[in-house]
Amino acid sequence: MNVQPTEGEYAFRSTTIVVSTPESTFSTTTLPVLGMTCAACVRRVERAVLKVPGVDAAHVNLATERAQVRYQADETDHAHIATAIEKAGYDVIQADADALDDAEAAAREAERTRLRQRLAWAVGLTLPLFVLEMGGMMVPAFRAALLDLAPASAWHLVAFALATAVQFGPGWAFMVSGWRAARMGSPDMNTLVLLGTSAAYGYSVAATFVPSVLPVGAVQVYYEAAAVIITLVLVGKYLEAVAKGRTSAAIRQLMTLQAKTATVWRGDTTTSVPIDAVLPGDRVLVRPGERIPVDGHVTEGTSFVDEAMLSGEPIPVAKVVGDVVTGGTVNQSGALTVEATHVGRDTMLAQIIRMVEAAQQSKPPIQAVADRVVAVFVPVVLVLALLTFGAWLLAGPSPPLTYALVAAVSVLIIACPCAMGLATPTSIMVASGRAAAQGVLFRRGEALQHLSDVDVIAFDKTGTLTEGRPALTAVHPVTGWAEDDVLRLVAAVERASEHPIARALVAATEARGADIPTASDVEAVPGHGVSGVVEGQRVLVGAARYVYQYASPSSALDAASTALTKAAQTVVFVAVDGVAVAVLGVSDPVRPSTAAALRHLRAQGLRLVMITGDNRHTADALAADLALDDVHADTLPGDKAHVIAALQAEGQRVAFVGDGLNDAPALAQADVGIAMGGGTDVAIESADVVLMHSDVQRLVDAHRIARATLRNIKQNLFWAFGYNTVLIPVAAGVLYPALGLLLSPMLAAGAMGLSSLFVLGNALRLRQQ
Questions:
Q1: What was the pLDDT predicted at 655?
Q2: Is 577 part of the annotated catalytic residue set?
């Protein structure tokens, strides 16, 4: 269960989110766990944690090997939860928050090293044993040569020595973990390996040292089977560990974007300090080619900054004094001095990393299917193995005990539920990391599934489909007046105003390079317009009802005004010394990528709706231009959520895209709330998905990745369930009566390992989305 903070920054790991309620105080913590091998281990850790008094919810992820726990802070704490996990037989990585990443990476690498060493010993001991046993069986001349050197009983002793070394050397960890899990009433993959290999090994020991206890004709040894099973399981676990490392490559790549040091101004000189030593308010010098180490604003210098890690756009962005810069981006051309506003764990990059990690930790609803199966899977397998053993013992060919043992061991080994435990979390890990690299943050893993299932995408207009700021789009002067001459007079009287339209007119004039004169006797009439004296001329700028009070009408300008109004633009009239000289068109321009993005979404069969507080005329004009399916105009902030609820009441699954404070209720109401990255903090906090770059094209990327992820998860679950559904009966021997085919335990071990690797490999394909 992911607990989202109601205020402040997103929290992760042992950082605590505190949510005050009348009943108690809840906190969340995330603990890295070592030693989990399959879905049954996940269930076991969850059960152990949930038994701790005060724990409200626990989610354990096999792919990330982390346990996320929600608990009542006045009843338990991080240490008690860690102790419960350790008592269940697993290791918990303990370290300070700042050192936890390094400690976890070191522990994972140490685990891979141990697996590699165990595998090397297993291969070195199993290979001669395999050659000795199978070579003698398959090549008569080789067997004859062996018997010329020593009797069969002597070679059995050699095989016993090699198999014992494997069983209680590289295989010892399986024995300990499997027995502990069985003793605690929650058998897992290790238990199945323990039972399977111990049965084969024990039977062989009896055949070697006390053959008289076995029926006539059943004195066989299976030392090589027990050793090969352990070796193949170790091969699979080692390759799985390597593949898991690849699934978290996106997080490691994000972490490499964090600067390690910063050059800080101390008086008139600079000094290089570790990034942890930088404080808010410090002035940081960033030279060309360096990575910006903090979030802040430019106080000196100009440059271009590569912000591809945030926006996905390769074109550098110009930065001047006053502009905001983000830690992790790269300064390119000029030196900048940046005043730090957010450092360390408070930077946007650090929060992005925590969001991605939290998404990887969460479980989508489809995971519930696997969880329900896994809850009973291993006990069912044990029963099936016993039934298989009994059936062969009662009705199998001679020697029945040998056939019964082979079939039962094959069932135990082939049924290890590793693939089930990896099917969903590995896909979530890879997909959320890939999405982050494209500027899409899934704050919750379940949002991947919800977004893939939506039927309707509803959009706010201003700041979502449009740029969110007015811009001059048309200038229609009367004969005898040039556009630039009109604009410089308009800008002169509007320059002191903070009105969005006034700022748009001034910005457009400055962009043309015009010299803006000084205005005097400036008077603003709220809701109407503004007037002033510029270069000895009385200039009026505003609505027609205002300007025409002091200037004579113009039929040409009225015609232009009518055309602009039909195009959903705001009309501004200009008069000079009592004569109307121009009409200007101002509108909030549609984002450049909006039209193409909407066409793509429509092609996916999605219904596109706009919900806006703008007037009906403006909304209808934009909707017609963008070919939207439906429009809700003149909508108050609270009514946006009601529109979403009405769509949901029709059976539609709805995603809502917005950016403002007034969009927060709709974002929370929607099945998937999607916030534009340039939006308000409240909007982002209410959303399930954040588009880091305010570009509707990122929504196309998010939807594509979500659909690919759900498809990938379904493929993984189909393989995991289908694999066991098909191969357990084969291992039990259903093909033997018709085809004489009985699966070898060694092949069963290889197939079990391949199933996990298939799931991991399939999930890694999402890196290409």
A1: 93
A2: no
